[in-house]
Specification:
Layout lengths: L3 E8 L2 H15 L3 E7 L10 H6 L1 E5 L9 H18 L3 E5 L1 H16 L5 E5 L11 H14 L5 E4 L2 H7 L9 E4 L15 H10 L6 E6 L9 H12 L7 E6 L5 H10 L6 E5 L5 H4 L4 E4 L8 H8 L4 E4 L14 E4 L4 H12 L3 H13 L6 H18 L1
Parallel strand pairs: 1-2, 1-4, 2-3, 4-5, 5-6, 6-7, 8-9, 8-11, 9-10, 11-12, 12-13
Helix pairs in contact: 1-14, 3-4, 8-12
């Protein structure tokens, strides 16, 4: 009988967004690939037929992203156990906090049943980190310490998390890796030609504007409000901001609140909400700068994709952006809680001379070459091959 792996996440579309390369590697290694997620939670839009095209067997479970949804997540754990039993799953590869908890609890369950279910956990950013709230650095850290005992492979995506992971006590023989991103597609995300930029800017009616773009879910952590505050501060100081347009690609819980903030600050003429975009490249690729104001990030794929397209980044300083941001070389590093800092970033990019701008755009792409998906693929192939030997 062939080997089977279960990829476990909380929201549907995760495979299409982040895991296609891992699915391809697993299939090449001879694994049957199953995918368990809350298929009703369409955080990333996708076409279910893509699962068939990828050779993935989907399973709908009632997992919720919030760890406080105890009843739903307890039921999801039972569903995961049932999927493992019915499909002879050999490996669970779980992602993100709640998926990581449930996947490792399933591993614990089967080990008590004297069955060695291997567990790989990719942490897309620990909830404990330097400068995090006390609850994060106590409760979440304690949870990771406990769950580490049921983890065979722990994968991180930034240096700070990697150093923290090495201090955890994994299952005997457990290994820790740091991925250089979760797969930046340098071929797909490449600079637009001058002709393409001109055409896209005309379609968006920003030909003569200084065009800023943010890509990300509308939630508190993505911190779009600090950019709105920066624009308001510029206007209130007497600066003419009629030539600035800030486009936001994304949707989420904060959608209505964002609309209210835009109205309250009188920024209706400056801010455009594009909603969820299946393909952000035409919009982001013609921007003068990408703004990435997150309070925290494990890494920040949207930021890496912008840089790969040669778009300078105005970004918050956090453990994720520290992996690639070089102040005033590929963008401008800001304090996430300071609108003044983002004003400085906007003015810096605005004030670049044409030659300096061309030089920065070229360096933006060069600065993220090391995050190309081929390097992450090499590590993941090694991880999966090692697990085949350990089964």
């Amino acid at each position: 009988m062939g080997k089977s792996v279960l990829i476990l996440t909380c929201v549907s579309g995760f495979i299409d967004k982040f895991e296609k390369e891992n699915v391809r590697i697993l299939r090449e290694l001879g694994y049957e690939v199953h995918y368990a997620s809350n298929m009703k939670e369409q955080h990333y839009l996708f076409d279910p037929k893509e699962y068939r095209e990828l050779g993935v067997i989907p399973h709908d479970i009632c997992v919720e992203r919030s760890p406080f949804m105890v009843r739903a997540n307890s039921k999801a754990l039972r569903q995961i156990i049932e999927i493992v039993e019915q499909n002879n799953i050999d490996i669970i590869h779980c992602h993100a906090p709640v998926g990581g908890v449930l996947g490792r609890l399933a591993g614990r369950y089967f080990r008590h049943k004297n069955r060695d279910l291997r567990v790989i956990y990719t942490a897309h950013g620990f909830h404990f980190y330097k400068g995090a709230p006390l609850i994060n650095n106590t409760v979440y850290k304690l949870a990771e310490k406990i769950l580490a005992h049921y983890t065979d492979v722990l994968i991180t995506i930034n240096r700070e998390d990697y150093e923290s992971a090495k201090k955890l006590h994994l299952r005997k023989g457990g290994r820790v890796y740091q991925l250089p991103s979760i797969g930046l597609d340098m071929e797909r995300f490449r600079p637009l030609s001058d002709e393409e930029k001109k055409r896209q800017r005309k379609e968006l009616h920003v030909e003569d504007k200084f065009f800023l773009v943010s890509v990300g879910e509308l939630n508190e952590n993505k911190n779009h409000i600090v950019v709105l505050q920066a624009l308001k501060k510029m206007r209130d100081s007497g600066e003419d901001i009629s030539g600035i347009v800030y486009g936001i690609c994304g949707d989420g819980f904060f959608h209505d609140r964002m609309r209210e903030w835009i109205d309250e600050m009188g920024l209706q003429d400056n801010v455009r909400m594009f909603g969820y975009c299946m393909d952000v490249r035409p919009i982001e690729g013609c921007a003068d700068a990408s703004v990435f104001p997150s309070l925290r990030e494990g890494l920040g794929m949207a930021a890496l994709e912008a840089l790969a397209m040669g778009v300078p980044l105005i970004a918050s300083d956090n453990r994720g952006t520290r992996e690639y941001m070089e102040h005033q070389k590929n963008g401008y590093v800001c304090n996430s809680s300071s609108p003044e800092s983002f004003v400085e970033g906007i003015r810096f990019v605005q004030g670049l001379e044409p030659e300096a701008r061309r030089k920065m755009q070229k360096y933006c792409r060069e600065s993220v070459m090391k995050f190309d998906k081929k390097y992450a693929n090499e590590i993941m192939r090694h991880v999966y091959q090692e697990e085949m030997r350990n089964e």
